[in-house]
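<instruction>
Derive structure tokens from the sequence

<record> Sequence and structure tokens follow
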Amino acid sequence: MDDTSRSARVAASLAGTRFADVRWEAETGSTNADVMELARAGEPEGIVVVADHQTAGRGRRGRTWEAPSGASLMASVLLRPRSGEAGATTMAVAVAAAEAVEELTGRSPRLKWPNDLVWPGDGSGTDRKLAGILAEVDWPTGSHVAGGWSPPGPADRLVVVVGIGINVAWGPMPADLAPIAVALDHIVAPDAPPAREDLLVAFLRALDRTYRHLTSGPGGRDLVMARWRDRSATLGRRVRVDLGADDVEGTAVDVTAEGHLVVETIEGERRVLAVGDVVHLRAT
């Protein structure tokens, strides 16, 4: 099936949702970069760019990530939430992705703060990464570099591009990744992972629901955060959070309405962390 036919088939399955504009490419540099360019050109919320292969895929803190062609579902979506909702968009995307995987496989991945879907290790206690999410935010509409930057008001709309990569059909995982990564064909029967097109449709339908809740007001946002908590692999765990300049170690006890992690440190202090890389520690 060529890219145009795949885009049309997926779009038809998404009719009535905000994500029916799907653009499937054989190869691109970065789907996030492609969608950000579309956003800056004034394209509306809901555009989805999918690629079989990315040559310049990115992770958090500028890390690079490259998957074999056709092995993963790699997609980015354009959202335009109010600024007060923007911080929780990653959580909404993570919940939607986990629900889609569960719908198609019957298996329930867990969510690692801030941006991973994980699967428990084989008796080792180490969670292995099934999917990663990268959200990038553009300046508020109407902002100009010459005028400097000022914090957006709570009702101001932001451009948020959220990319996701779900490992689907990798076959044997490379030796350097096997201890830390997993694909759906390792979790279900090797010959029975879902088709990427079906996974994309299930994900975008679920995201249509979770994003609608997120943007419907405080009650809807609370519902999304409750669903994230229910699937969390981080809450209740001993963690070390790498903040770059230093580390915070303690127990992850909650997430805020904005999606920030609350850690009770070993000194008994509660820290609210907006960003950071989390390591799950074994219980002592």
